[in-house]
Amino acid sequence: MTGGRQPSVAELRPAADNRGMTAFPPGFVWGAATAAYQIEGAVNEDGRGESIWDRFSHTPGAIANGDTGDIACDHYHRWREDIALLQAIGVNAYRFSVAWPRILPAGRGAVNEAGLAFYDRLVDGLLAAGITPWITLYHWDLPQTLEDEGGWPNRETAVAFADYVRIVVDRLGDRVKHWITLNEPWCSSILGYERGEHAPGKRSTRLALRAAHTLLLAHGLATAVIRDRWPDARVGITQILTPAYPASDDPLDVAAAERYDAAYNRWYLDPVFGRGYPGEMRAWLRHDVPPTPSSDFDIIAAPIDFLGVNHYFPAYVAHDDFDPYLRLRRVIPKGAELTAMGWVVQPRAFSDLLQRLHRDYGPIDLVVTENGAAFPDTPPVAGRLADPARVRYLAGYLAEAARAIADGVPLKGYFVWSLLDNFEWAEGYAKRFGLYYTDYATQERTLKDSGRYYRAVVRAGAPLPATTPLD
Ligand code: FCB
C-alpha cells in the first residue's frame, strides 16, 4: 500500500479529542482475538501432536529468554474463566484459532476426538455467554510431521490442510458461522521460511515463495470445503497489511516503497482477488517464484465474504543497494512514537489502509481481525494497571476506523489483539499486548485500563477520547 506523498508524523498523529466522531454502525462486531499456541499450553495433553512451534520454541536461541508455549496462559484448562473475561469487557465476538495438531496429531490420518471435544466445549461456552465465535483455522502451528515432509513449501500440505478443515467444520459448522482460513500467510512464509525468525526457522527466499503459494492454495481449497459443507457460513482470510510510504520524495525511495507494497501486501492480496501475483514483482523475484499453473489461481480466487485485516504499523521505506532481496530497508521517521515492538504508532495510516483496500479490492466487507500494541506494563497494584500508552493507541486507531466508516468503507468489525498477554512468538512473554495482564506465575488475569477503555467504547458504540474516565 503505497500512500503517495509521505505524510509527516505530526499529520499522522490522532486528534487529541475524538468527541463528535461518527458512531460505529448498529450490528458492529466488537471482539478480542487470541491464537491457540499463544494461550493454550497443555502441549502434551489429551493426545495433541507436536507442532512446528513446539519444536522451534525448544530450539536454543530461537525465542527471547528461552520461553516456550508449553504452559502459556493455560487456557486449555482455564477457558471458562477466559470466557468470563470476554463477558466482562462486553464484546460480542471472540476470534480464536484451532490447533491442527490437537485435531490431527500426525497432520493427517487419525482424528483425535479429545481435541475436537475441547473446541466443542469452548464454542458451546461462548454461545451460552452470548459471544459469537470467529475461528481461525490456521494460526501458524503446523503439525511437525508435515514439516518433516517439506512443510508449506510442499504442495501436498495444502491438500492436508483442506482435509483438516473438513474435519473441523463438519464438527463445529452447525454452530460456528465465521471462518478465517489462514492468519497472515506473509508471516508464515517470510518470517518462517525466509528470515528464520519464526517456525520452522528456515532461511531461503525460494522456500518462502513456495510456502506462500501453497498457503494461498490451501486457503482456496479450504474455502471451497467450507462452502460445500455449510452454504450459510461466512468465509474470509486474514492478511497482515503494512502500508508503505516512501522515506523521501527521491524516486528511488518511491520505487522501493512500491516494491515493499508489491512483495508484502499485494503478493498475498492480489491472487485472492483473482489477479494473480503482481507482474512487476514476479519479474523482480523471477528465479525464486515456483511454477504456478493457472488452475492454481482459479482455486486461490474462490470468492470470500470478508477480508480480515491485521494492522499494526506503517512502513517507511528507503532504497538500499545492500539488501539482496528487495533492495530496500525500513526507516523510522524522526520523532515517531514507537511501541515496545519498535513499531511506529500512526493511526492515520490505518484509515489510509482501510480506504485503499476498499478502493482497490472492493466491494468487499472488511473486518479488522487484529489491532493493538505492546507497551512495557508494570504489574497491577491493588487490582489496577494504568497503561495510558495502550489506551492512547486504541483511541487513535479506533477513531481512524470510525473515520473510514464515515467515509464509506464497509468495515464490519474490530478485534483487539489481544484478549490477554500471551506468548508473543519470537519475543516470548516479554512483550505484552493484552487487555488483561497475565501473571504467568499464578495465571491470574487483571483487567488493564486499556481493557476498561475498550469496554467503554464497546458500550458507547463510538470512538472515545483517551481521556475518557474509566470505571
Ligand atoms: C500478529 C500475529 C499475532 C500476534 C500479533 C502481535 O502478526 O497474528 O499472533 O502475535 O502479531
Notes on the protein architecture:
The protein is of the alpha/beta class and 471 residues long. It has a single domain (9-460), classed as Glycosidases (TIM Barrel), CATH 3.20.20.80. The chain is 39% helix and 14% strand. It contains 16 helices and 13 strands. It has helices at residues 9-12, 36-39, 52-57, 75-89, 100-103, 113-128, 144-148, 156-172, 185-194, 205-229, 251-269, 279-284, 294-300, 347-361, 388-406, 449-460; strands spanning 29-33, 93-97, 132-136, 178-183, 234-240, 244-246, 306-310, 315-319, 328-331, 365-370, 411-417, 436-439, 444-447. The strands form 3 sheets. An 8-stranded parallel beta barrel has the order 1-2-3-4-5-7-10-11, surrounded by 6 helices. α8 runs parallel beside α10, α10 crosses α13 (294-300) and α15 (388-406) packs parallel to α16 (449-460). The longest helix is centred in the middle third of the chain and has 25 residues, at 205-229. The chain is globular, with a radius of gyration of 21 Å. The protein starts with 8 loop residues before the first helix and ends in an 11-residue tail after the last helix. Mean pLDDT is 96; it is low at 13-19. Bound molecules: beta-D-fucopyranose (FCB). Beta-D-fucopyranose is lined by residues 35, 38, 183-184, 187, 240, 310, 370, 417, 424-425, 433.
